[in-house]
Design a protein that fits this description.
It is a single chain. This protein starts with a helix and ends in an 18-residue tail after the last helix. The protein has one domain: de novo design (two linked rop proteins). The longest helix has 57 residues. The radius of gyration is 25 Å and the shape is rod-shaped. By secondary structure, the protein is mainly alpha-helical.
């Protein structure tokens, strides 16, 4: 009789551990999804700002058509990949960030544009959004780390394997050129600015 009670208690303890670990894994997976949704919100905000920025800059930067097209193309590509995997999204977002950085570096050659109130307001909004994207990515990667630790450490890895939990994917830059800081050159002979037409 005592053996049956001990076996019953052990089964109940194992069941409690299983349910607790499973619920913890579900909670962590949902936190990862929420963190990704926060990145999506900020990326949408950036996508909405870029056309306004390009339109404001277009009148001043008539000799920089290639730069403007690169920003527009990178934005369209990144936006079209909104349902793609994290690695594809990270690559597209890295290309968009690079195109925006090049645009803002070229703006340094146009003093009239740098003084335009619409441009300054858009630049401030874009800078704020870029900071929020950066914080959201960091939060997402922190949540993925917590989730991955839970799915890969014993004994929760046993339960994760039995119930189909897979490791999450970090949002990281894979292209080394995207990690480099943008080089801004302040030449002594900037192009003449004709202002908006």
């Amino acid at each position: 009789m005592l053996a049956v009670i001990i076996i019953g208690v052990i089964i109940i303890i194992l069941l409690i551990i299983f349910v607790s670990t499973y619920n913890s894994l579900v909670g962590l997976r949902n936190q990862v999804k929420n963190a990704w949704a926060q990145i999506d919100v900020q990326l949408k905000r950036r996508y909405d700002l870029i056309p306004n920025l390009v339109e404001t800059v277009k009148g001043y930067m008539q000799h920089e058509r290639q730069t403007l097209e690169a920003v527009t193309n990178a934005r369209n590509l990144a936006q079209s990949l909104s349902g793609a995997g994290i690695a594809d999204r990270a690559k597209a977002e890295g290309e968009l960030s690079g195109a925006l950085s090049r645009l803002l570096a070229v703006v340094e050659n146009y003093p009239d544009l740098k003084a335009n109130q619409n441009f300054l307001a858009l630049q401030e909004e874009l800078t704020s959004t870029e900071n929020k994207i950066s914080f959201s990515r960091q939060y997402y990667n922190d949540e993925v780390l917590r989730y991955n630790n839970k799915t890969q450490m014993f004994p929760s890895n046993v339960i994760a394997g039995m119930t189909g939990f897979k490791a999450g994917e970090f949002f990281e830059v894979k292209n080394e050129t995207e990690r480099e800081a943008v080089k801004v050159s302040f030449s002594s002979n900037p192009p003449a600015s004709t202002g908006p037409k």
